[in-house]
Amino acid sequence: GPPPTIGHPSGLCSPRDIGTLLPPSLGTSPHLALLGKRMGTDDFASQEAKKIRPALQAIRALKDEPVPEGYYRFRFNEDCQYPHCGYREHQTHFHCMRKDCGYSFCDKTRFVQHTARHDRLDTLMGGDFQQYRSNVSCGRSDCVYASMVGRQQNKASHFHCMKCDFVCTDTNKVVAHRRQHQKRDSINAAGFEKFTPSQSCGVQGCNHNQKQTHYHCLKCNYSVLGLSQMSAHKFRHLD
C-alpha cells in the first residue's frame, strides 16, 4: 500500500518532523525532506557529503598550490624576518626574494603584476642602476634615503647608479642619467674627456676652463667644443 504520512496530510514531513529523517545540518526545507524520504536518510547525507568534499579539496589545493619562482610564502605563524613587514607573524603572505626588493603581499594576483614590474625596471636600468625598495636598506651610509627605510610616509624605491654617486627616486631620471653615461662613454672611446663649467679641467692656459662645457684630447690636451671637432682632431693622431 502507499507509504504512511508523517504528521502532514500531503504526505510530506512537517517542519517539526524533518529532524526525524535528516541530520540537523541539512536544514528544514520540505523539498529536502521529500528527497530524504525517497532516498533514505543515510543515502541523502552521503550525497550531500560528496558535494561538499570537492569544494573542501579545492580550498586546500588553493592554499597549498606552488609559489612561483622568485617568491616565498610565509604562513601566519612563521617569521619572515623582514623587520618592516606589516604581515610578519600574523598573516599568511608572500615575499619577493630579490635582495633589492622584499616586496610583501597577500593577494596571489600580485605575482604576475610584480614580476612585470621587475621586468620593466630591469629594462629601464639596463644593468647600470641598482634599485632598493622603501623597506630595504641600500647599505650606503652617505645615501640621503638610507635613513628613511621603513618609515610609513616613505613608499618610494630609490635607485643608485653603479658608475657614479648619482641617486634618485624617479625612473625618468634613471633613463636620462644612463644616456649621459652612454654619451660620456662614447666621448672617452673617441679619445676625449668631458668637462662642465662646474669642473676644472686642470689644463694650463685653457680658455674654456670653468666657462663652458668642453672636451680635452686624452693624448695631447687639445680642447674642442663639439663632437664634430673630435672627429677632425682624431685624424691628427693617425699620422
From TrEMBL:
Key word Membrane present in the record? no
Q: Which PROSITE patterns does this chain map to?
A: ZINC_FINGER_C2H2_1 (PS00028), ZINC_FINGER_C2H2_2 (PS50157)
Instruction: Tell me where in this chain the C2H2-type domain is found.
Output: 94-123
N-terminal signal peptide: none
GO cellular component terms given for this protein: nucleus
GO: which molecular function terms?
A: DNA-binding transcription factor activity, RNA polymerase II-specific; RNA polymerase II transcription regulatory region sequence-specific DNA binding; zinc ion binding
**Matches recorded under PANTHER family:** TRANSCRIPTION FACTOR CASTOR PROTEIN MING -RELATED, ZINC FINGER PROTEIN CASTOR HOMOLOG 1
| Official protein name in the record | Zinc finger protein castor homolog 1-like isoform X5
Which keywords appear in this protein's UniProt record, sorted alphabetically?
Metal-binding, Zinc, Zinc-finger
Q: Name one GO biological process term.
A: positive regulation of transcription by RNA polymerase II
Species of provenance: Hirondellea gigas
